[in-house]
Amino acid sequence: MKKRVYVLLLFVLALANCTNTNTDFPNLHARVQDENISVNATTNFFRNNNSFYVAIMIFNNADHAIELIFDCNDILHYYGKPKETLCMDVYASTLDPQKSYKASIEVPNERIKMGNDNFHVEIKYLLVDDQFSLTVPFKE
Length: 140
Description:
Helix content is about 10%, strand content about 45%.
């Protein structure tokens, strides 16, 4: 019986250590859509490297394929993101109707601001010959 209690206690302690208990760095979320795509996103704070992991799911609601625009191999852009000086690589990737795309990025802690200046990412895409940009604001 004591062995089970110790194992359970170790499991609970390990689980508590993995979650974000620091209220200075709350986990954030976002849900937004426009006429063509919908986006769900979350953040998790990593204490080891003092940064946030931003995970995002893009779903194509349009009747036609869309082209997700990647700039320097990234689809997610945020204010203050360092730019690669020698990168001229811009391309598009097709996302068929009713399909989804997962993306993630690591964001330094100092780029995540709450209050009046909430953190947000921007996604750019093409539908037929029109370019669209969707801002994804995060909140607690």
